[in-house]
Amino acid sequence: MIANFALFFAFYVLTPLLPLYLNETFGATKDVIGVVLSGYTITALLVRPFSGYVVDSFPRYTVLMVCYAAFAIFFAGYLAASTLLLFAIVRTLHGGPFGALTVANSTMAIDVLPSARRNEGIGYYGLSNNLAMAIAPTIGITIYQHTHSFQLLFWIALMVAFIGLATDATVKSKSPAIPRTKNSKLSIDRFFLLRGWLLGVNMVFFGFCFGVLSNYLAIYGKDVLGRTGGTGAYFLLCSVGLILSRLQGGKALRQGRLVHNAAWGMVISLVGYTIFIALPTDVGYYGSALLIGLGNGHMWPAFQNMMISLAKHNERGTANSTILVSWDVGMGMGILLGGVIAEHWGYSAAFWSVALVNAVGVALFFIRTRFSYLILTSNVQH
What we know:
By secondary structure, this protein is mainly α. It has helices spanning 2-12, 18-26, 30-57, 60-80, 84-112, 118-147, 150-168, 197-223, 231-254, 258-278, 282-309, 316-345, 347-381.
């Protein structure tokens, strides 16, 4: 949990400020910013299916340490990048170790958890990156407001990443990966858990929403709402919602009521995204932060446990990579299309698209995904 928190903290402490950095330092336009930032997610997306196979086929501890070391070192590249092209190259390549590391770390977490408490444990593990998503932008924005130094933020991300690496070095797996049989044929199921494709599609929709929110919130608040501050408080309220989700949803996870938690999380998030754009007031702005945090806190561990429950023991890495790949696809589309929509129709249109996409994801889950999951789970158990 600590190493996972450090991983996502290092990433998200920079996320809301990178558009401002690219604009102020290199004079990048809105659509160029979207292209540059989406490269990270696209690379992570390309790497994750293969990293799931590697995690399932090789010593997980070794894979974990190599990936974390590479992830940490890449932050030094931001400090060295002196042109927009160099920054774009470093940012894009950085997505590779990030994509592999998130799979390796979450799979190792599953290994060290006792099976009887896996649902609950994954919920708390998932809370660590949810909290990092909420707290890190607040801290990053606060530091920038007081120092106006992007270089300091790059150094902080670098140091936090190495703290995470040192933490993971102390972890010992109780159940090593079970390699697939040598005679097994290569198939797409080695890289993507086909049984969970509908869950993956749902995560694409929800990833899109958070991709737009996390990357364009600061600029939206400045250009549309006229807010010179408040972004840090927004993400802080998100973290409060995430903590409340554990208090409210922990019992349901212990009882294995994954569909219940996922459904509640999606509906709460939908309300949050809708009031964010529909009510451009303090109540709508900060109220949406609390609701989106609460909704994501319910939804993420439920979806991850649902995907894992569809996998065999030697497919855990693949299951994790599948859910993360799906989130990456959505995040990448949100970052890229959010920038394009904002360039042509404004940031208000970009955030209205978030509410619409989220509603489509919720409808898909209630109409199709939940029924498909229950049927597939029964088949896997038998």
